[in-house]
Design brief:
The chain is an all-alpha fold. Helix content is about 70%, strand content about 0%. The chain has two domains: about 50 residues, Orthogonal Bundle (Arc Repressor Mutant, subunit A), CATH 1.10.10.60; about 120 residues, Tetracycline Repressor, domain 2. The radius of gyration is 19 Å and the shape is elongated.
């Protein structure tokens, strides 16, 4: 069992690293340790390499996004919950791509394989809620949805961000079509 202070240190390191990498993808391990208020030894005990830290930050972000599904479905219609959730996923994916220089091709592959199943399960939960209430067509496939939304995180963020319009088109395509 991990001691509570060790869990707190790990959580502080992940938070500091997420913020630091968002500010500057070239942030050093020592800068992360300083920002987290821990010594270098504590940082390296938890994350022996910069790549391990980057992967942990990304994994933590994906888990956080996946955990929002039940709350979104409790507060919003399934289509609106899917819109909100997908927007969060797009932001996380953009961060992952921004951290890409810190990851080897093997690490990219590993994190993709590690997160694919949980992400598809979250999308399935959102789509199933919409299928159940009739707001999402019954043939909507979570893998197809994920592949379509991959284009969203490749669009340039900022004032000319096309991703909200593109997401609206994708979501419109999920609506059941009137029967002739």
């Amino acid at each position: 069992m991990v001691r509570s202070d060790a869990r707190e240190n790990r959580a502080r390191i992940l938070t500091a690293a997420r913020d630091a990498f968002a500010d500057d993808g070239a942030t050093s391990m020592n800068q992360v340790a300083q920002r987290a208020g821990v010594g270098a030894g504590t940082l390296y005990r938890n994350f022996p390499t910069r790549e391990a830290l980057v992967l942990a930050v990304y994994q933590d972000e994906v888990e956080r996004i996946i955990a929002t599904v039940p709350g979104l479905l409790a507060e919003l219609t399934p289509l609106e919950a899917l819109r909100e959730w997908t927007t969060g996923l797009v932001e996380a994916m953009r961060k992952k791509h921004g951290l890409g220089d810190a990851l080897s091709p093997t690490a990219h592959q590993a994190i993709t394989e590690q997160t694919y199943g949980p992400v598809v399960a979250a999308i399935t939960e959102l789509l199933d809620a919409g299928k159940q209430d009739g707001s999402i067509r019954t043939d909507a496939d979570p893998g197809d949805f994920l592949q379509l939304t991959a284009a969203l995180w490749r669009t340039a963020p900022g004032p000319d961000d096309r991703s909200p319009r593109m997401l609206a088109l994708i979501l419109d395509g999920l609506r059941p079509q009137p029967q002739p």
